[in-house]
Predict the 3D structure of the following.
Amino acid sequence: MSEKPATVREYDVTTPEVLADPTAWLHRVREESPVAWLPRFGGYLLTRHADVVSVLQDTRLDTANMMRAMEALTPEQREELTPLREAVTLWVGHTNPTDHRRFQLLLKKYFTPRMVDRLRPRVREITHDLLDAVAGKGSMEVIRDLAYPLPANVIAEMLGMPVADRERLQAWSRDVLIVFGQSGDLAALRRCQDSMMEFHDYLRGLAAQRRAEPREDVLSMFVAAQADGIVTEDEALANCVLLLFAGHETTANLIANGLVLLFQNPDVLAALRADPEQMPMAVEEMLRLDGPAGAIQRKVVEPVEVGGHLLPAGAHVFVSLAAANRDPAVFPDPDRFDVSRGRSRHMAFGTGTYYCLGASLARMEADECFRILLDRMPALRPAYDRPDFVPAPPVSHRLASLEVLF
Ligand code: HEM
């Protein structure tokens, strides 16, 4: 935990006000104290677009060692979780800068615009299949029936996982989620470690098959890179897990949150039905207004000045992408869903060295998904009074469920 700084105003993020309306609270904090302190999480909170950009592009802060969930544990408990910690430190984005460049170079060869184009028809097919499965029912739970399985199927195919294993993959992925959390829940961390190790064993078996018979998937690419001495086996396994996880948890939330936004903005929904070509811009607004990554984290490596405050080495920083994306200094009338903004400077995928590798893929999946959904379900409407948001610490939310009628 970082020390509380004397000069920075502190805020309690567990009050009913924050939980009821994180957006309004973030607006208030941005005005009152754009560099704030969260005692509950022992870290700074940044809410201004300019500060968020400058920090994410500053090499004096890094992403490494994000396993804060472990800080509250005893040395023995941490020791027990060594395999988990070691695996996570191999994830691209959690490594040192040299390893990071090496992974990025490798993965960027695969995550190309060509790959996204090639996957587009498959994304359409999967979306149709998922909607076919519920078509006769007149209702669905969007997260379970569409938002989650669509990107999960896409990323599993990209990685080269057999269809029959999808359920297991989803269960492992859910357990791994805790790595990004703030709570030192030992039972959940143990489950996370067990799932991660089971997942690695499973991948080892699959990698052996790809070694014998390479295909055009990420696993085959890792197998080849391992043979060329570019990555180790542990690095390959760890990064397959990361991709599986990063490839669908986030995109699932984009689809779910995006649909809630459309219900909240019936004029936008009607305009998109009339002219689906506006969909890519609508997806940009969904990303800006309620992007899946509410806040990302950094550790200060060398002291750095942000918004007139000196952040000391070792300090923990929560970079609120949600607050930056509604900063009126950059986005006039920031709370309005406005498809005419153009490709705005939103931070939903981060910026700088760690900019999201799957941004084009996620955009394409959401674009196709919403086009098909609106086209096939002209009577689509919410079956809830209030969206079922649950808090996602420190200051964010996610949908637990999303019931609709059509
Ligand atoms: C709407 C969907 C998505 C959102 C909002 C999102 C958000 C982000 C953000 C904010 C970062 C930067 C993290 C940081 O700076 O600490 C990031 C990095 C990353 N994302 Fe995504 N992501 C999404 C989808 C995807 C998909 C589909 C994939 C892969 C298939 C992916 C793979 C990655 C990877 C590998 C990184 C690390 C990049 C690096 O360190 O160089 N993401 N993502």
